[in-house]
C-alpha cells in the first residue's frame, strides 16, 4: 500500500478572495506539511505594480492571512505567501509585511523566523540587458524602449530556489515578492525529494485553490496528498465540492497557452503522458507528469514584468436613447453594441452592460459596496455555468471609479459587460444570490450604502468614454472635446455621469525573459531573515538563493508548443448527418488571459462522443478558428486536442496588450461568445471513433 509522504493545504486562489474558515479547519485534520497561498498576479493589470497598491480590500487580505498564521502557529508548519500585495513589487511586499506584523501581534506569535524575498529589479540593470539584445520576447509586444523601462517598476517571477533556500534556512513564515504561482507549492516538495514533474503539476492544480473542483471556486481550500508510489491525490475539504479526474485534467489547461507543455524558470512541465484518475466520488489524482531541464549552460529564464504610468484618466458614462445608437461613431465603446469586444454584436447576439453604481455618506462605504458587488458578480458560480474564468468583462484597471456628487454624497461605479447567453438566462438568480451573500457576510456594507445595477443593452445603450493624458489641463480639454463631439450627435440622459476622475492609467512596458545567470543569481530575489515577536521583527541576516539543477535530461518526447497535439486540417469524409449547438455539447466554454499578450480558449465537452464529433468536424482547424474569431491566421498560435479531458484548447495572440487604454476585458474572461454560438456538423465517421473519457 502506498505511503503518504507529504500533505499540503492551498488556502484559496489569491489572498483576499476569502475562504470558509470551516474549510481550512477541515483541511488541517491529519498531517499538514505546509499551508500556502498565492497573493496575487498580473491579471488585474499593471496599475498595482506601478503604484504598489493592493487589488483586494486590506481587511479581506488580513482575514485570510490571519487564518493561515493561526493554523501555522498551532501546527508549526511552514506558511508560504507569494506575489505579496498582489503585484509583488517592493511596495506591495512592504504592504503585506505591515499586515503580517499586525496579525502576529494580534495572535501573539513570538520567537519565529520569517523570511521576506524581494522580486524587484533595478531598471538600469534591465536597460543594460536590453542594449545587449538579451531580453527575449514572450510573444507580441510590448515594444521596449529605454525611456519606458527607466520609468517602470520591474519585477521578476521567482522560481523555486529563493523559496527552497529560505525553507532550508529554517524560515517558518515566508513572504515573497512576485512569484511563479506554481513555485510556491513545488518548492517545499522538491526540497523534500519529491519528483519535480509531480511537484510542479501538483502546484499548478493547487495555485487557484478550489477552482480545480466541481463546482469550482477560488474562494475555498484544496488539499493535495503525495504518496511514495509517485501519485498525488486532491480532495476538497468542503463537502459541497469534489475533485474528479475530469475537473483536475480540465484545470490543468487553465490560463496556459498549451495543454501539455508549461514553461517555468527552471524548465518545462510535460503532461503528454500524465494519467488522471478518480479514487472515489470526491478524490482524484495524477501520476506520470515529467519535468524537463530545458538546456545548458543554464535553463533559467526569469520572466520580467514592467509597469509604467501613462497619465491621469478621465471617464464619462453616458446613457442615450436607443434610437440614437446609429449616430454614435464606430470607434466609441457602447454597452449594447461593442462594450465587450471591438467586434459589434451580430444580429443573433446580445450584449449586456452591467454598471454597478453605489451611493453613501462616505467614500469608503460607497467603494466597499461597489467592490463587493463586482467581486461576487464576476466569480459567482451557478448551475450550468460555462464561462468559468469569469462572468463579466471589465474595461478599466482598476475597475472602480469613485467620485463625489453635487449633493455631497459619495458614489462609485464599476462598468462591465458580457455576451454570454448562459449568464443571461441565469442573471436574475445570480443577482439575487449575490445580494444574499453580501447580506449574510457584510450586512454593514448594505446598511451604509445603497446600490443600483444598471443594465445597458441595445434597448438602453450606455457609452463609456476614456481619456488618458499626463498634462492635467490638456486632459480636461481632450475629454471635454470627446463629450462635446457626442453631444452634437445625441442627447444625453440625466443619469449620465460626466468627466469623472478615474485612477491613473498604467501600461505594461516589459513582458520578456531574462536569461543572464549572473543577474539572476547575484542581483535578483534577495532574502532577508527576521526574528519575529509580534509586531517586533528584528533583522536576522540576509542571503541569496542557492541554485541547483532540476528535472530530467534526454527527454525523447516533443517540447514544441506549436506542433504537439495540434489539430490537423482533415476534412471529414462524406456529408454531415446532422448538427449540434456547441453550447449543448460542452460543459465549459471559457476564455482567459494567458499572460498579457495571449488569450486562451478551453472547450471541455460533456462526453467522449461529443468531443470526437467536434474534433473531427474540422471546425477547429487553425484557419477556421481565425475566421470564427475574426483574426488573421498568423495570430492563431495553435488549436490543440486534449484527450485526457475531452477538451479542445485554442491559443491566440491577444488583439491588444492586456489593460491597454482601449481595453474592454482586462482578464480576457468574456471573449468566447463567437465560439459559444457555433453549430457543429456531425459526421458518422466521428461517432464511430468516439470513446468516453
From TrEMBL:
Q: Which residues form a coiled coil?
A: none
The secretion signal range is none
InterPro entries (alphabetical): AtuA_N, DUF4387
Residue ranges annotated as transmembrane are: none
DUF4387 domain: residues covered: 582-674
Query: Which Pfam families does the record associate with it?
Result: AtuA (PF07287), DUF4387 (PF14330)
The record places domain Acyclic terpene utilisation N-terminal at 92-282
Q: What is this protein called?
A: DUF4387 family protein
